[in-house]
């Protein structure tokens, strides 16, 4: 759902590793190695063991750009939230007056968060699907920030993008399933809510139901069908837990964009990279700074931008698009990035025009057929 780009806070969720029913795309040997790397990093950071090598020659965006251009940076992980999609016209949750929660009065909810509560949804699905129609994927274009991540992939340095967003704009920009961990789920697929059924439906099927103002019901068992986004009261995807164990110990640059880093367990990922791994925050304000108590509990690794001990964390305070453009400029990629955005937006506009023309022709043909139908004979 494009509007609620980043799902509501999940501070109350506990990180419980699910049963290993679904394997990651990497081999079992890689998984075991990744888990060992993670344990070493965890003990090292929690107990203060090991050395903290300074990788960046300068704690600035220039320093990050020189590191990327050095060729030593081959496994970049991006962590992103609602801030990367606001320039596409998608509201965040809590901005006064413009945020999603400030504009839900028309749905007569008992409280704003109810629209994403799984128990409320099962009893009253109408508000959610009305909102989904208003903010459905396909009505917005990816931003400069989305295409910057696509460039990282094309240049062979993106290991994975971990996103809190459910707007599917990463996919529209050209990232594929293997490139993405959609931590809070996605509209890309949907499933029947019945545990005995769980039939899967695709994006086009769900779109047709929503825009026909039909509450989606399972063809097999007539239960509700819900997009695969994570509501309050639901577990995060299994792949989130299996992939992070392998990805983060191998990360050699963590880029965090457009997120408050307050939602757990997503926010704790910043502490899963090695002690030497540089971390770049591109955001409108500094977030994710160290909390000593969380560090003692193993959720440490909070960022340090300003103290005398700072050695790897860089904060670039700007919009995500401006920050990505500035970094692309320092990397020598700016013209390429701007050309990519222009080309892809033109392609999307052309595709949208073709779809609308096709729909108009279909509607006209249907109207013409109806008007040409013979009048029914009156009964004698």
From TrEMBL:
Keyword Transmembrane on entry: no
EC number(s) on file: 2.3.1.286
Write out the catalytic residues in the record.
184
Enumerate the spans annotated as Deacetylase sirtuin-type domain. 54-334
Q: Where is the composition biased (Acidic residues)?
A: 12-34
Q: Where are the transmembrane segments?
A: none
- Give the reactions, separated by semicolons, that this protein catalyses: N(6)-acetyl-L-lysyl-[protein] + NAD(+) + H2O = 2''-O-acetyl-ADP-D-ribose + nicotinamide + L-lysyl-[protein]; N(6)-hexadecanoyl-L-lysyl-[protein] + NAD(+) + H2O = 2''-O-hexadecanoyl-ADP-D-ribose + nicotinamide + L-lysyl-[protein]; N(6)-tetradecanoyl-L-lysyl-[protein] + NAD(+) + H2O = 2''-O-tetradecanoyl-ADP-D-ribose + nicotinamide + L-lysyl-[protein]
Q: What is this protein called?
A: NAD-dependent protein deacetylase
Q: In which organism is this protein found? A: Amphiprion ocellaris (Clown anemonefish)
Instruction: Identify the coding gene.
Output: SIRT2
């Amino acid at each position: 759902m494009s509007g609620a780009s980043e799902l509501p806070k999940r501070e109350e969720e506990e990180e419980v590793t699910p049963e290993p029913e679904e394997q990651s795309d990497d081999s079992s040997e890689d998984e075991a190695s990744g888990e060992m790397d993670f344990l070493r990093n965890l003990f090292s950071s929690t107990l203060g063991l090991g050395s903290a090598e300074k990788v960046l020659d300068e704690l600035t965006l220039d320093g990050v750009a020189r590191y990327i251009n050095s060729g030593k940076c081959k496994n970049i992980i991006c962590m992103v939230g609602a801030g990367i999609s606001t320039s596409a016209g998608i509201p965040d949750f809590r901005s006064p007056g413009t945020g999603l929660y400030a504009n839900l009065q028309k749905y007569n909810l008992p409280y704003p968060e109810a629209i994403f509560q799984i128990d409320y949804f099962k009893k009253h699905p109408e508000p959610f699907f009305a909102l989904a129609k208003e903010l459905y994927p396909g009505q917005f274009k990816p931003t400069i920030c989305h295409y910057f991540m696509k460039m990282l992939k094309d240049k062979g340095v993106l290991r994975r993008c971990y996103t809190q967003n459910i707007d599917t704009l990463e996919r529209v920009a050209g990232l594929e399933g293997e490139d993405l961990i959609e931590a809070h789920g996605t509209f890309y697929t949907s499933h029947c809510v019945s545990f005995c059924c769980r039939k899967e439906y695709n994006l086009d099927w769900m779109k047709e139901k929503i825009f026909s103002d039909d509450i989606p019901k399972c063809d097999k068992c007539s239960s509700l069908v819900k997009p695969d986004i994570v509501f309050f009261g639901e577990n995060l995807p299994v792949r989130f837990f299996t992939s992070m164990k392998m990805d983060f110990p191998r990360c050699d640059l963590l880029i965090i964009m457009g997120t408050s880093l307050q939602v757990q367990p997503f926010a704790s990922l910043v502490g899963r990279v090695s002690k030497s791994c540089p971390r770049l925050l591109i955001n409108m304000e500094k977030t994710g700074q160290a909390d000593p108590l969380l560090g003692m509990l193993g959720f440490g690794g909070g960022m340090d931008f300003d103290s005398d001990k700072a050695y790897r964390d860089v904060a670039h305070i700007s919009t995500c698009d401006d920050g990505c453009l500035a970094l692309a400029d320092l990397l020598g990629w700016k013209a390429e990035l701007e050309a990519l955005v222009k080309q892809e937006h033109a392609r999307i506009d052309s595709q949208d025009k073709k779809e609308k023309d096709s729909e108009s022709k279909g509607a006209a043909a249907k109207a013409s057929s109806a008007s040409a139908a013979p009048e029914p004979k009156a009964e004698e």
